[in-house]
Design goal:
The chain is an all-alpha fold and 103 residues long. The protein folds into two domains: 50 residues; 51 residues, no CATH class. The chain has two helices and no strands. The protein is rod-shaped. The termini are far apart. The mean pLDDT is 87.
Length: 103
């Protein structure tokens, strides 16, 4: 079998280096293209997730058992971006802040 393909290999021998060179550079370009696409998609996702207003809402508890007292099923998700019950929380003073052991 190899004897049948030997003339073909000898014919393509001068082209092996340029073909391999182009192939390797094509792989490198595809690697950078895919990395750039992944980074761009990640940035778009982060921008969308930073629009979630739950942390600044009066009804946000910060407890992982009950994140929001009004809409617990959509708290901290993309569905909460346009929450109709959003109420900006007011700043607490040091006297209103509960002791550390009760937080």
């Amino acid at each position: 079998m190899f004897l049948l393909l030997r003339p073909l290999f000898e014919l393509l021998a001068p082209l092996q280096v340029p073909i391999c060179f182009c192939f390797v550079w094509g792989l490198i370009l595809m690697l950078f293209w895919n990395a750039g696409t992944g980074i761009r998609a990640g940035i778009e996702t982060l921008k969308r997730l930073h629009q979630i207003p739950c942390v600044g809402c009066e009804f946000f508890t910060g407890d992982y058992h009950l994140k929001c007292t009004v809409r617990p099923s959509t708290a901290l998700s993309e569905e909460a971006i346009d929450c109709p019950d959003f109420a900006p929380c007011r700043r607490r003073t040091a006297r209103e802040e509960p002791p550390i052991w009760l937080r």
